[in-house]
Predict the structure.
Amino acid sequence: MQTLASVYFYSSAGLVMLVFVAAVAHKLRQPNEFIRALVGYRLVPDVGLRFWWVLPLLELAAVLELLVSTGESRWLALSLLLLYAAAIAINLLRGRRDMDCGCGGEATPIGWGLVMRNIVLAVLALPQHAPIDELMGLGVALTLVTFLLGTLGYAIVNQLCANSVRE
């Protein structure tokens, strides 16, 4: 049972790290696109847009937090994911569905699917106790397979969210 807890601990951290690394890369490669998305949310005052770089910096800090985490220190990743879910939900409740989520990659209009995706990622980022045993052999393989399946599931959910709004 402890091996399964270790598999979950490492694969969930890996998946959330991958999401944040991709987000940071997108924001730094295409800052103007990210700033346009921030403007679209209408949650940040114009003066605050000058500090757009703080979000990718926080996401990078969340990656480092997960990388060196003993488990109990996953709060930044959790907080950012809940913040993003709340920002999307606020705009959906305002009736604004025609805006890009700013998640990176292909433009994806916001929808409740993205809110749920971020909540699921937040659950994966919940602080937890680090496993006490080291993974060996089959545990490492199971962690890798779990991480790869999680990554595939994330990609599928993103594509479904992008497609569902375009129909």
